[in-house]
Design brief:
The structure holds 2 protein chains of 2 kinds. Chain A is of the alpha/beta class. Helices cover 37% and strands 16% of the residues of chain A. By secondary structure, chain B is an alpha+beta fold. The chains are: A alpha/beta, B alpha+beta.
Chain lengths: 309, 94
């Protein structure tokens, strides 16, 4: 595409096309958008994060990531749409303008570049990273079981051939460790939102224990408001609640770790499939999915802005 | 490139906890090469599983033998993948 205006948001794109889009957006909005490389993947691909900032130094920030499970293509595609939306709405949408006048937004669109490239080249159904495990012919670790929060407890597999293999140790995956290091170095992230698909859920900690998170009531209230906003657009039904109560026990998950780091507003989305497509959601549903999800993200970001801690 | 011709995605409806456990038994049978898109959680929650063609008959017999309801959510995974690729290339050509 020659510009982010002619970029096609209603189709799926390759890693190269998405990385090209990042550069387009930075070039068009140098005062608002910058591209950071937070690391390199197992196979050596750069891991990029877009930073949206209107100034200040080490401002409180909101983190959003998509594509940690590579086959969940509607999430990376939605991340691209969110990036464009932020540049379009700053200065137009009073809520987003207020958010960005006080907070920074970090958006990592392709959180698992090796897996994503593999879904295009060899296996569309690939979910994990592409790291090799000594002593096993099976490849990859589930990057949403590799975090240092309940790591290795029930809710993940120790079998390298399993889709929920947690890896040899916490943060063994460089794609995870890169985010861990970024979050720790930044030290002022106030909301962390990790976006998956599919099954239409908005969840908060914990996943590895039945114990209620200390901020459970507030998180539940925010989730309820966010889901209400999401459903208002196209009627897409979402459930919300803690990970363990809403789906199942899952250990070593992203948001259990971010919550353990004191990032109160830690949420995981599972975006739509309203029909019967699962991970193969038709491209025609990318934009509606991104639009409805954006309404929920705005609620969470606005709450974060209005409830400093 | 991995080909998924003949693979189907079944949407399983486990009516009670016993049936959820039965489906979990399937999850442990590695030779069936099942890929759970939505894992077994609690009764009433849909369970979606991609079943390679060679395992289809065995899985369907197992489910029917235990009275576990299912529908075919995707008849042929490869057909959907082909559509997805065509759509991407058509737009890229455009």
């Amino acid at each position: 595409a020659r510009s982010s205006d002619t970029f096609n948001y209603a189709t799926y794109h390759t890693l190269e096309e998405i990385y090209g889009f990042l550069d387009l957006l930075v070039a068009e909005h140098p005062q608002l958008v910058s591209k950071l490389q937070i690391g390199s993947s197992y196979e050596g691909r750069p891991i990029y994060v877009l930073k949206f900032s209107t100034g200040g130094s080490n401002r409180p920030a909101i983190w959003i990531d998509t594509g940690i499970h590579s086959r969940e293509w509607v999430t990376q595609a939605s991340g691209v749409w969110f990036a464009k939306k932020i540049t379009q709405d700053y200065g137009q949408d009073p809520t987003l303008t207020a958010i960005l006048d006080s907070l920074d937004i970090f958006l990592e669109i392709v959180t698992n570049p090796d897996g994503f490239a593999f879904t295009h080249s060899k296996n569309r159904m690939w979910r994990k990273t592409r790291s090799l495990t000594e002593g096993s012919s099976c490849v990859g670790v589930d990057p949403n079981r590799n975090w240092d929060a309940g790591f290795g407890l029930p809710g993940a597999s120790s079998n390298p051939c399993s889709e929920t293999y947690h890896g040899k140790f916490a943060n063994s995956e460089v794609e995870v460790k890169s985010i861990v290091d970024f979050v720790k170095n930044h030290g002022n992230i106030k909301a962390f939102i990790s976006i998956h698909s599919y099954s239409q859920l908005l969840m908060y900690p914990y996943g590895y224990t039945e114990e209620a998170a200390p901020d459970r009531d507030e998180l539940d209230q925010v989730a309820k408001s966010a889901v209400t906003a999401l459903t208002s657009l196209y009627g897409t039904k979402f459930e919300y609640g803690s990970i363990i109560k809403t789906i199942y026990q899952a250990s070593g998950t992203t948001v259990d770790w971010t919550y353990s780091q004191g990032i109160k507003y830690s949420f995981t989305f599972e975006l739509r499939d309203t029909g019967r497509y699962g991970f193969l959601l038709p491209a025609s549903q990318i934009v509606p999915t991104a639009q409805e999800t954006w309404l929920a993200l705005r609620i969470i970001m606005e709450h974060t802005l209005n409830h400093p801690y | 490139k991995e080909n998924f011709a003949g693979h189907q995605v079944l949407r399983i409806s486990a009516a009670d906890e016993a049936q959820v456990q039965k489906v979990k038994e399937l999850e442990d049978l590695e030779h069936l090469q099942l890929d759970f898109w939505r894992g077994p959680t609690h009764p009433g929650a849909p369970i979606d599983v991609r079943v390679p063609f060679p395992s289809l008959q065995a899985v369907k017999i197992f489910l029917e033998a235990h009275g576990i309801g299912y529908t075919t959510m995707i008849e042929d995974v490869q057909a959907l993948l082909d559509e997805e690729q065509e759509q991407m290339f058509a737009l890229r050509a455009w």
